[in-house]
């Protein structure tokens, strides 16, 4: 039976956007002498441990079949290892604004992958809302697009990261359809992601270091607790409730939160096109999320 967009889902949606939007600035503070890959291992390793501890205290099921663990590993590899490694490679070649713009394409990727892997059609409302929202994001980041030299390699990394994250979304939906709840799913998958990152660090002979400065430690703790433990849990809960294509609409609002923070911390001043684009993106979100939808699964969050 079709249900309206609920208050609980709205709260999860808003928390996901806020934690995701604030993660960009916190991640920027992590760029010290410590390799980004090593920082990611600290972040996801600690977050995985916290999530599994909370799951154990909550008496969540923590024993699963080897097939379930293959799905956990797929989610961890795509969503927490490959996607982040490719984002860092892209960041060395193009601006974070262009990466955020490219990452917004996850909405379209999720629509296609939902049809291919979940045999679930996407409504016209979702597609039209996606196009309106994406057009708005393009307007917001148009100055960066036109004022910077285009780099196809960087764009390729960003697109590949977005595709990997989309595959992670599909794995999350498939796991929740099996009745696996969000806390253990996120904790175990994040643990696999940290293992994949550790393997990559060892293969590429990364230097394992740590920056004891207050800024690095504080930003790392923030990234562990809010975007990782809370943000990814609420995001996958939204995906479970709304579906992969609708849940991905958070990716349109996350860059806007990041820009709002940038206006305070880095002196960013929005143009008239950025204001119009923001209104278009918000309208696209409102249009899609206030229409009736068929819940994918019952999510225990």
Automatic annotation (TrEMBL):
Q: Where are the transmembrane segments?
A: 7-27, 39-58, 70-88, 94-118, 125-146, 152-170, 182-203, 215-235, 247-265, 271-289
Pfam families from the UniProt entry: EamA
* Keyword annotations: Cell membrane, Membrane, Transmembrane, Transmembrane helix
Ranges where the EamA domain occurs: 11-141, 154-289
Query: In which broad location class does this protein mainly occur, judging by the first location in its UniProt entry?
Result: membrane
Q: GO cellular component terms?
A: membrane
| Cell compartment(s), UniProt | Cell membrane
Query: What's the protein here called?
Result: DMT family transporter
